Amino acid sequence: MYKSKIIKKMVLISLVTAIFILFFNGCSTTGKALTEKNNGDSLNLKINDTIEIRLESNPTTGYGWFLSDKADSTIVSVTDPEFIEPKKDKELIGAGGYEIFTIKAISKGKTSIILNYERPWEEGVEPIETFEITISVD
Fold first, then answer.
1. For 71-92, what is each residue's pLDDT tens digit?
2. Comparing C-alpha atoms, which of 105, 112, 117 is closest to residue 134?
3. CA 131/CA 37 separation, integer angstroms
4. Which of 105, 102, 112, 104 is nearest to 133 (CA)?
5. Given this model, what pLDDT does residue 86 score?
6. Mean pLDDT of all residues in the chain?
7. Per-residue pLDDT tens for 89-116?
8. What residues form DSSP beta bridges with 17?
9. Domain-by-domain residue ranges, the chain?
10. Measured CA distances, 27 to 48, 50, 64, 104, 105 (Å)
11. Mean pLDDT of 53-64
12. Which CATH number fits domain 31-137: 2.60.40.2020, 3.10.180.10, 3.40.50.970, 2.60.40.10?
């Protein structure tokens, strides 16, 4: 009988710990990774939520994803992109990969995130692709 009470307490403590971890992880980030399929989406975030935008890219062509000046940096912060090569293509020279931007909600408001796939030295040339989302922070 004594062992069963100890086991029940251990199970209860483990369950409470798991709920605590899940709850506080859910409060700090949406855990959502956006891709090209999310182009045009609108998102609602809470302050301190973070999301990732993961877009296909091949910098060996000279093209890359660049943030337009339209994002309101008082509402969201956007990191510089990190380029990730797919594991299977690490040996292939010139293989594409993904650029990943991390966005964090920092104050209430609404803004657009516009990323353009372009060559930065080609002034006056339209980007070959654009990715846009609207973010509302409550």
1. 899 999 999 999 988 776 556 6
2. 112
3. 10
4. 112
5. 73
6. 81
7. 556 666 789 999 999 999 999 999 999 9
8. none
9. 1-29, 31-137
10. 8, 10, 32, 13, 12
11. 93
12. 2.60.40.2020
Residue type, 3: K
Tokens at 24, concatenated = 């506080």
Tokens of 3: 């062992």
DSSP conformational letter for 59: G
- How far apart CA 34 and CA 15 sit, in angstroms, is 31
Residue pointed to by tokens 């506080």: 24
**6-45 pLDDT, tens per residue?**
545 544 444 434 333 333 333 334 567 899 999 999 999 9
Q: How far apart are CA 44 and CA 17, in angstroms?
A: 28
